[in-house]
Amino acid sequence: MQRIKFDMGELLAFVATAEKSSFRLAAEALCLSAPALSRRVERLEAALGARLLDRTTRRVELTAVGQEFLTEARAALAGLDEAAQRVGDQARLRRGRVTVACIPSVANHLLPRVLRAFAVAQPEVQVHVIDENARQVLDAVLRGDADFGLSFTGSQEPALRFETLTRERYVLAMPRSHRWADRKEIAWAELAGQRLVSVSHHSSNRLLLDQAMAELPERPLAWYECNHVTGALALVEAGLGMAAIPQLALPQDHSQVCGVPLTAPALWRTLGLLQRRDRVLSPTADALRQRLIQAHATPDAP
What we know:
- The protein is 41% helix and 25% strand.
- It starts with 7 loop residues before the first helix and ends in a 7-residue tail after the last helix.
- It has nine helices and twelve strands.
- The protein is rod-shaped.
- By secondary structure, it is an alpha/beta fold.
- The model is unreliable at 298-302 (pLDDT under 50).
- Helix 1 crosses helix 4 (64-94), helix 2 crosses helix 3 (34-48) and helix 4 crosses helix 9 (283-295).
């Protein structure tokens, strides 16, 4: 079958003229002279072998063939626009920059394996990680410094949307040589009189821990205090005490430290994605967000 040859400019010229019923108005809309526009329409008619427009001194009208072709021409142009948009979106996915704000335990243990897979799929994308405490993560997202954040619940900010990613239980971190290392669980009340390492009041974890211990007959005493969970874990590694920490902060294959779930009460925190309600993520940032969602299913918890 012989291919009919015409170009995009000729198709646009015909559609604009048909919609405005005027060569002059169509030429102004396309930033062309009226004779140039007319020549484009004539070339299209010649390529098709049919008259599309009837010209009079006052008005331009579609022929029956022209009316039918206008419907097809509009659909073709719309299809080309959609195709160009898809190509543009794919190009933006291959390049760009994403900024993620997250709490340190996420930066150390949850984020790296997702970023490793993301880097394989989008090797030209730069990722900036803001690893700070929960309050600073919240502020970074609110200010727009980060595309989205990874933190745990506790914020009542109406400007933010929280999307659950996973839940983690608090465990008692201790040296593998400790006499409790083989226990299935440990009650908070058993910590009285033990040498403990704690996070400071600057850590958002401290509020959750204080709430868990508020009703205990004897509150455990912290001998050492750190601003971040990672610092507390380092002191546990050094044999200076035990620490109540989120499970994600303790690698399962840690050679020196193990974690035993705390109970009575069991304490969980919900980790999720923080995003401003009025902000639409770029295709690149949304691709990373989708990978995080797919990689971390929410485990069952009481």
